[in-house]
Structures are given as C-alpha cells and as structure tokens.
Amino acid sequence: MEAPLADVEWQNSLVLSARKGEPGTMPKLVSQFYSAVRAYLVRLVGPQEADDLCQEVFLKATTKLDSFDPEYPFGTWLFRIASNSARDFFRRRGVRRPILPEPTSEPYVVSPEESENLSRALQNLPPDLAEPLLLFYQQGKTHAEVAQLLGLSVGAAKMRVHRAIGYLRALLKQGGRL
Amino acid sequence: VNHPARENLDAYAHGLLEDEAASLGAHLEACASCRDHVENYHRESEALAKVLSADLQGQGKGSSRSQVSPRGMFSRRGRVWEALGAAALLVVLGLMFFWPVKHHTLLTGRMALEDGTDLRSGARLPLSKSWRLRALERSALRLADHSMVELSSGGLIELANAGDRGVEACIASGEAVLSVTRDSRPFLMRSSVGDVMCSEGSFRLKVIGSLEGAESMKGSITTAFVTVLAGSVSLSNAQGEMSLETGRSAIMETGRAPCLVETQEDGDALLKKLEELSARIARLEDEVQRLETRNKNLKERLKAAPGQDIHPFLHKEFRQKMEANQESLRKEDLQKSEEK
Asked: From the CB of residue A2, how many other CB atoms can be counted at a distance below 10 Å?
C-alpha cells in the first residue's frame, strides 16, 4: 500500500521549501508528522522519554534537512531518524533486555483495554523486532516500506514482523510483563 | 486429512509462504477448520492494528489496517477528524513548547561543568543559577523556555537566568544550532563579537577562533558565522545591526558591523578560509607560547646556577650570549637589592 503520490510530492515540496527557508514550512512539516512520530516513540521507549526523544528527532531533522534526498518520501527519512534516535537512546541507557519467553503461534486478539499491556510488551521486545512491528501495524507502512526504512530485504522485514508477533503473543499472555 | 502445522498457517496468514502458498490455499478451500485458524490470525492482525493505530488518531476512533490506514493522517484531503486532530495537536504542541519549567535539561550527549563535574543525558540544571558548560561530545540541551541548543563537541556555552525571557546564552567557542520557541520576548544569544536575537526560528552560530583567549593572537581573529535555518534573527554589535532571513548567512567580528554573506557558496568558501587562517594562527600562537616558556625556563636555570656552564651542547656564540644575559640579570638583581 503506497502513499498517494500527491501526498509524498506535497510533503517533499514542503521540505524543499523549508530548505530554501520559506517561512512557515517547517512548522507545517512538524505538525504533519509530530503525532505519528510521537506515537511510534511512545510505544518504543515509553511515554516518559518519548517527548524528549521526539524533540530530538525533529531537531535532528531540522538541522540535517540538507542531507534529505527528495527522491524518497520525507516520512521514510524521518522515521529512520526516529528509529536511530530510539536505538541511541537504548544504547545510552545501556538497556539490556531480559530473556524473552518462547514465541508462540497461538493467536492473541488484543483488546483496546489491554493497550497498557501492549505497551509493556512492546517495550520488552528488542528494538529490531519492535520497530518493524510498529511501522507495519501502527504507521501503516507496507513490508516494502518497512524494509526500505530499516535497510532490510522485504523478506527479512516480513520475517521480523512475524517473529515480533510470536514474541508479542507470549508476552501478552502474561500481561505484557516478563 | 493431513492438516498443515499451526506455524505454517501463521506464516501463511502473514504472507510469509511463497512456494507453499498455492498448495496451502487449496487445502484451505476444502478445510473449514484450517480456514478458522487463518481467520483467527487475521482477526489478531486487525485487532493489533486497531489498538496501535488508535495512538495516531487521538479521538479514540479505532480502525483496523484493512479498514482505514493510519496513513490517512498524512493525507491532504479534508477530513473532520483531521481538523480535530490538528486542534488537539496544537494544544499538545502548545503545552510542550510553552509550559514553563525551572530547569535546563541535557537531552543527549555529555557535558562538563566548570568544576569538571560530568553531566550525562537527563541531567537537569536549575534555571535560577548561571552555568558554564563544555560539550565533551555533540550534545543537545533543552532550555527552560523549551528552546533547544545543539552544541558541537568541545563547544563552550554559558547559560544565565537573565533578560526578558529569563534565559540567555553566551557562546564562547564551537558551533551551536539553536531552535527558539515562539515568544514575543526574543531569545538573546551573546558572543564576544556580537549578539543574535530571535523570537522564533532556528539558526546556526559558529565561532571561529576561540573567544576564551580574546586578548591573544588566537582571539584577535575571532569571527562568528551565523546562518538562519528557519524564521529570522537580528544581529548586532557596537558597530551596527542587521536582520537576517531564513537561508541567509552573515559574519560578525570585532570592530566591524555584521556583514551579509551574499551567496551560500561565498559563505562556505569564506568559512573554510577563516577556519584555515584560524588554525594557522592557533598553531603559531602555540609555537610562540612554547618558545616563551622555554626562554623563561632557561632564564630561571641561569639565575639558579650562576657561573656554571649549563649549556655545553650550545654553540660557542650562543653560550656567550647566554652568559652575557646571565651577567646582566645578575647586575639587575644586585641593583635591585642595593635600591632596597
């Protein structure tokens, strides 16, 4: 499911305008993507840290706008910054993830009331599994887009989403906790 | 009937099977039990997408991946919830940017205080005090007014609880990128060669030549190079002032009014030349200091050991000069003691 071309073109034209320094374009870009990036980071690192990290992502994007290649969608570039920032965050904090339970192929239908458990479970997943899962299910990216964003092959992206679900099921069955 | 393994049905439902997909599809057409299992996996996927995509919508409106894509939020086409989302976003952004806090926060990187105390990300510095911070690596600070400063490794910045905004910064060396939150009271960034004021926007300020040794040769060519990334800024020093719009660059230096750099190419070339010149002068300065120290040490050794030939390895002429110097120093000392 590709983004409508007009949207990508419009976003990229905003970026080019922002590069040229047209007033008001950067706030437009921020408001377009802020809630999506924040939602992604909230599930990845938790609400306490997501706000600071989200600011960091937009600060990096603002200062590195020159390195953006308008051949690709701006959202893809921005989420790559968000993923890298989350990884840096885990590295800085020296987060060591505990051993996960055995993945299961028994489906688990999560309900909206279990959103907290889902957050806990996602934060217990290693980032290389949580990121593709969030990009696919939360951000609505296709497997191909997830692959491009994380520098993987399409097959590897599919496999990671699938593996992430296996672990997620096992974690959700115990309330998201390890 | 041989039913496929549950793992295979799971992989099939997630589109992972390629070669076996056709045969498994044929089995599913004939097997209601396996169809139910696959249906469960689809329900699981839809539920997961529904709960997670609700994060984006903010109005509690759930949607599954197969119904409404969360990408809808990026769409230009008007939707009622987009307007509601935008309003909610404005509130969130407003709270985020304008909620007053009483401290600066080190978001990323590592900095050191004047007394050598090491600061790690997450460190908070009360607004009520002044701070002199050196970046030990590239670091980002969120100031009490929610403006952001990214400082290059080795950069030196001072923060003070001053001015209309209650926050002022002064850069002594390095490169800083400031993203200033909107406020009618402008943010003031000082430097020894001029000030930058900004009410909203983002700018880069690069100091070439250390301001720490402003009385030395190194400091004598101190220049600040300012580029506006978003919004506009005002530059001023004792010689004049100017305003600078997005994408434009200017130079500030001692004894001259701020000066616009006409094109980006000119700016880059100039910046490179200034950096090279600054580096050469810094090397010369270091060499002069080294020679001065050596000379001082030699004089002290001569004073401490009068009459001794302590430089047998020197040329005769040079030794004679040193001895003459030693003699004159001795006479000076004698004269001083007589005066006393």
From this structure: 11
